[in-house]
User: Fold this.
Amino acid sequence: MLAGVTTQAADYPERTISLSVPYGSGGSTDGIARQLARLLEQELGQPVVILNQPGATGTLQLGNLARAKPDGYTIGLYSYSTATFTSQLLKVPYTRDDFELLGGVAEFSYGIVARPESPINNIEDLISRAKSEAGVFYGVTGAPNNFPFLSLQKVAGGKFGQITYKSSAESINAVIGGFVDVALQGPSEYVELVKAGKLKVIASASNYRLPWFPDTPTIKEQGYDVGITGIIGVAAPKGIPEDAKARLQAAIHKVVSGSEYGQFLVNRYGIKSYPASAADFSVYIDKGFSIMKNMIKTYDIKGL
Assistant:
């Protein structure tokens, strides 16, 4: 009997595994997922196919994942922002307890950009401008990208006016066109524009310096305890067999810890890998619910 159990555990996986993604094909999240799937195939010895499931601000995919059969053959990306923030603003058909977290995957980077001729060259300049009669207008695609500006306004004062755009590209173009003073987005959205001299990066809004702009200090390095995080990991439906869970956790951690995957993220998207264990990722997510609840209350953020 024991021999039979050992053989069964060793057999997983025996067929194709599906990895769901909360956005359509072609974006950075989709690209990260496809590289992860390619390397997981090598570790697991079975195909890993991508299922793009955009909709409902990322919650459609998590709803589908929560309802999937917990057999180890359906897994999906699990976003810190969607899980801890969006789920508290929308009525969603799942809870934290519906998922088994399998490990971390990537940590998105964020930077604040301005026009090259702008007098805003750093955070002190940004705050000085906010305290002037003109104030500061910033472009974002919504929360939580606006959190750094809301936090700076709270601790430093001044006038920070938010202009919300439908896409990150629109917010970046608004800076170039002079419709807003600054914008906060990921580096892949503006790296070529910075190289062309059409934009400048005044601060990393992440908790580390941007890999593509290592000479630009973080907001924290510039004297303000402000930052934004964009962690994503992988989850499975609750109830996944222990053998499948252990195999997936080990494979994900090995891939994400590897140099090939890490270099891909830096070179393609200017972001970092996030090789957190399943246990560490779970602790991080669980803490995030109270952090985001406090942010929603502090800044009186309404439902989406």
